[in-house]
């Protein structure tokens, strides 16, 4: 927040004197405390009178963060500082004025009731206790207090931090550096809370990026490498956005201000940015972008820009599987399937396990190739092994099969060659194996092109020097449509799947049924509270650092690909 403060006063001639002050901070303290950004030096003002915070514009509030002695800890007063709004703070008047360009807000501060207009008995009480009235010399007292503070709050704590000769045991309170601690560290950092040197490598110097990266080696960059993040964030440190000792929740701000500073005009910060400008989810957030597999990488398509199709190489009509009348089952009557039959939550309950043939499909889509003889199935996902299994099965039947299985498999009377009387000749052996090879070739063609594989997969027939073969296209089913978004299915368990994913009438696996932003806005508002809607800031759905897109369930990031690199001057 950047606030313009204009202090107004009058000289003896009655002329108005103005002093302009620019304040850039997360919040502005108002009060008699010397540390206050807006100092109101009057005994009629509390030490910590109130705060001015940025809530889509400056808001003055009293009673929060310990600014009053209220036992309820609730706000006594909260006023939005729109232009023309005035607040009486004891003898002072704060007036909001039009905000100049480049500022979050602007106010004037004027003393409207000077001390000389106050009752004499109040002034006498305010001036009664002074060093002079107690007969204590100011200079000697100041020097003694300075020495006391230097010893107990600087030299003794420094002994432990800097390992000086007078270092005292950790348990001695006055030898501790807790007096320097500005606040508790976040929960994730509490294991090293007593090891200041883990982050503060050099005494009295800011925390360097290298200290952060000692633990956060696998953190991703904020933007893609081709946008030169080192240049984009030149002169910035990790700690400029991630400030510890501000509470146990996190090290970053959870309001939209930090994000909107850049994303209200993102291309002015990065010419190559593909994202669009945004200031609030409810007002001007662009349509969602979906990430789809494409070639060896991925492509991103924004909803509303045209038809979106998923090239998964899979044949899967949702309408057939979600038929209210049910689908056929090899052993049962028709069974009715719901979304949960294939889409099962993962251990976190936030997302879903990738759909697999063994867990979700094979109960109905069995890969039996000679069901009249055996319940044996060909292995899924390995065409060469499937053909080998088929050839070995029929070769074994041609040599060792009993009469029943032989006749059912080959459609001719007889039995396996080795079961017949006498020693078979080489010609008979070759004839039996030729019969098996012919049958195996015919069954393989049925498996890949008619009965099994082509039911769900894109299959290409290949005729080469070594005979007939088939290529089954690799399935690239998308399991992360918006990999940079945070979405928790568990939090949406009260809704039906069809509320967001309407696939009951989808007849193509290429159909994309991801929710649109208009549907999300029915429940989610923006950064400002709205009745019957969930207040939604940027960080509710977005992370800050980039991650690779795991469209492939087998994807495992390489350490070198995601390890952050940088120095004290870049994040």
Describe the structure.
- With 571 residues, the protein is α+β, with helices and mostly antiparallel strands.
- Among the domains are: 2-127, Tumour Suppressor Smad4; 383-472, no CATH class.
- It is 26% helix and 14% strand.
- The protein has helices spanning 120-127, 131-134, 138-161, 209-215, 229-232, 238-241, 257-263, 266-269, 281-284, 318-321, 357-361, 383-400, 403-410, 426-451, 453-456, 497-500, 517-520, 538-541, 559-562; strands at residues 2-10, 16-24, 27-31, 38-39, 50-54, 58-62, 77-80, 86-89, 92-96, 105-111, 289-294, 297-302, 459-464, 467-472.
- The strands form four sheets. A five-stranded mixed beta sheet has the order 2-1-10-9-8, with no helix packed on it. It has a five-stranded mixed beta sheet with strand order 4-3-5-6-7, with no helix packed on it.
- It is elongated.
- The two termini are 22 Å apart.
- Mean pLDDT is 83; it is low at 64-74 and 557-571.
As for the CATH topology of the domain at 2-127, it is: Tumour Suppressor Smad4
The number of helices is 19
CATH architecture group name of the domain at 2-127: Sandwich
Distance between the termini: 22 Å
């Amino acid at each position: 927040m950047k606030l313009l403060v204009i202090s107004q006063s009058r000289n003896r001639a009655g002329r108005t004197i103005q002093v302009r002050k620019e304040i850039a901070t997360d919040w502005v303290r108002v009060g008699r405390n010397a540390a206050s950004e807006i100092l109101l030096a009057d005994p009629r003002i509390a030490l910590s009178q109130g705060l001015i915070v940025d809530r889509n514009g400056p808001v003055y509030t009293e009673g929060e963060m310990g600014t009053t002695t209220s036992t309820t800890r609730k706000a006594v007063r909260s006023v939005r500082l729109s232009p023309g709004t005035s607040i009486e703070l004891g003898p002072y008047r704060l007036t909001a004025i039009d905000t100049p360009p480049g500022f979050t807000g602007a106010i004037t501060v004027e003393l409207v009731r000077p001390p000389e207009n106050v009752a004499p008995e109040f002034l006498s009480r305010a001036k009664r206790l002074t060093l002079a009235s107690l007969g204590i010399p100011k200079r000697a007292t100041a020097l003694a207090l300075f020495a006391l503070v230097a010893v107990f709050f600087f030299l003794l704590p420094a002994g432990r931090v800097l390992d000086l000769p007078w270092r005292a045991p950790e348990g001695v309170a006055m030898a501790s550096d807790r007096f320097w601690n500005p606040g508790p560290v976040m929960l994730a950092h509490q294991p090293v809370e007593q090891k200041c040197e883990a982050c503060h490598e050099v005494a009295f110097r800011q925390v360097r990026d290298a200290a952060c990266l000692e633990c956060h080696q696998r953190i991703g960059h904020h933007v893609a490498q081709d946008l030169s993040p080192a240049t984009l964030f030149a002169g910035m440190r990790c700690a400029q956005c991630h400030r510890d000792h501000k509470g146990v929740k996190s090290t970053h701000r959870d309001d939209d201000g930090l994000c909107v500073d850049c994303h209200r005009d993102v291309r002015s910060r990065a010419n190559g940015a593909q994202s669009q400008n945004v200031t609030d989810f409810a007002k001007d957030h662009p349509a969602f972008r979906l990430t789809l597999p494409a070639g060896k990488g991925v492509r991103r398509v924004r909803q509303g820009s045209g038809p979106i199709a998923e090239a998964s190489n899979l044949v899967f009509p949702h309408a057939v599987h979600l038929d209210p009348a049910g689908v056929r089952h090899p052993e049962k009557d028709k069974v009715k399937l719901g979304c949960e039959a294939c889409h099962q939550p993962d251990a976190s309950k936030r997302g879903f396990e990738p759909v697999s043939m063994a867990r979700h499909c094979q109960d109905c889509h069995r890969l039996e190739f000679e069901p009249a003889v055996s319940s044996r199935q060909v292995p899924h996902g390995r065409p060469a092994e499937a053909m080998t299994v088929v050839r070995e099965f029929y070769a074994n039947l041609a040599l060792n099969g009993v009469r029943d299985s032989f006749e059912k498999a080959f459609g001719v009377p007889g039995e396996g060659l080795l079961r017949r009387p006498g020693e078979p000749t080489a010609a008979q052996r070759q004839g039996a194996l030729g019969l098996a090879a012919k049958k195996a070739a015919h069954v393989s063609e049925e498996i890949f092109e008619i009965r099994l594989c082509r039911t769900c997969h894109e299959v290409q027939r290949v005729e080469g020097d070594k005979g007939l073969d088939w290529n089954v296209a690799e399935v690239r089913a998308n399991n992360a449509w918006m990999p940079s978004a945070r979405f928790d299915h568990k939090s949406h368990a009260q809704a039906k799947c069809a509320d967001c994913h309407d696939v009951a009438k989808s007849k193509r696996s290429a159909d994309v049924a991801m929710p649109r932003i208009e549907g999300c806005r029915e429940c989610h508002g923006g950064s400002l509270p709205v009745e019957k809607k969930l207040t939604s800031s940027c960080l509710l759905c977005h992370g800050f650092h980039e991650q690779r897109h795991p469209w492939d369930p087998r994807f495992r990031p390489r350490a070198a690909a995601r390890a952050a690199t940088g120095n004290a001057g870049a994040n």
